[in-house]
Fold this protein.
Amino acid sequence: MGLTMLYFAWVRERVGAGEERVDPPEGVQTVAGLIEWLSARSDGHAAAFAAPSRLRAAIDQRFVPLDAALNGAREVAIFPPVTGG
Amino acid sequence: MGLTMLYFAWVRERVGAGEERVDPPEGVQTVAGLIEWLSARSDGHAAAFAAPSRLRAAIDQRFVPLDAALNGAREVAIFPPVTGG
Amino acid sequence: MIRVSVDPAPIALGVEVAALEEGGAGGVATFTGVVRTDDGVEALELEHYPGMTEAALCALAEAAVARWNLLGVSIVHRVGRMTAGERIVFVGTAAAHRREALDSCAYLIDRLKTDAPFWKREWLAGGTRWVEPRAGDEEAAAVWS
Amino acid sequence: MIRVSVDPAPIALGVEVAALEEGGAGGVATFTGVVRTDDGVEALELEHYPGMTEAALCALAEAAVARWNLLGVSIVHRVGRMTAGERIVFVGTAAAHRREALDSCAYLIDRLKTDAPFWKREWLAGGTRWVEPRAGDEEAAAVWS
């Protein structure tokens, strides 16, 4: 059972894609764990996720803290702090 | 040296005029004194000025309390509390 | 930019907002008062004190400019007779940052209620009545002093 | 009435205000964000999270309706590329009394800054840069919770 990852703003630019399907191993249980695991996928991922304190996340279109559990998540988005309005 | 009196809203309606020239005697030194003196001019004036607590005033186009001194005033307006906006 | 107008013509909101936006501001806040359609009021009549009204609105606009860093202030008040759904008053402010625009806009309408010589008369099916001031208006204006 | 829109087309302010005024309210408060012309920014690009954005704006509008007695709420956010002087965002509220309209309008724009997934990129003469969140935005949003 895989996950849809979405990336926005400079996270998207550094990763080099706005969306990808991933299939993390059992041990990856939180957003923070997912970010760490994703960092190994490419230099772009590593650059995007180098400073977790600058990252924000949403699980299934709801903002969550980085220590939120993934259980049951279908869509996880990683992005910088929002700057709308 | 006379004064121009201006009346607005229900004060104007009760007095029966929006403007009049008056020449109060020396003893009339404040807006409150002026209101008391004007009350004797007609039944309309008396009705308009019966409850001074419901009246507000301006001297030369500036809001003033009823105990404000008239000295040098050229235009005095008497009206109910304002209700704009 | 300070624009103050007391006019029997309908308030052209688009024109006022465009003038505020042209100043290069980051944010524009507005408040528009509209004749309510709910409580049986068929029309509203606004009387004012010509000369003093314009001076009072200019003084209000200048007080806002002195207190906040504003790029534009507009105060437009309609006078005469108007019907339900029509605009009575428009206040708008433009500033680089939203807080200044929002706060100064609230200030202008709160103070206008107590500081400018306007009187409202309602036309109802049974006749007319002069509107009494609302108890909260004095307190709302006092918050800013 | 709740209207929420996320659209690459320019924001039609007149249409939005008219919809708010039609509700029979006594007061309509609005805030419009405009691309500033001052600091060398030639254009602004707004990226967002389709689906989540609309849901976040609807949730925000519903929170305002739950908190104040409102007759109408509009939130319109532009996305894509826009140039200096163009509108980025419009929030507007309609209520019987001005305080509810003013407070809920300020609430909506303060919370929108932190609660909706938009990202701004500035286009300058020398290139582009992603906008960093302003330090005060978190505190401004927290005031309302």
Summary: Residues 95 and 101 of chain C are 5 Å apart (CA to CA). Chain C has a mean pLDDT of 94. Strands of chain C lie at 2-7, 27-34, 41-48, 70-78, 80-83, 87-95, 118-124, 127-130. DSSP finds four helices and eight strands in chain C.
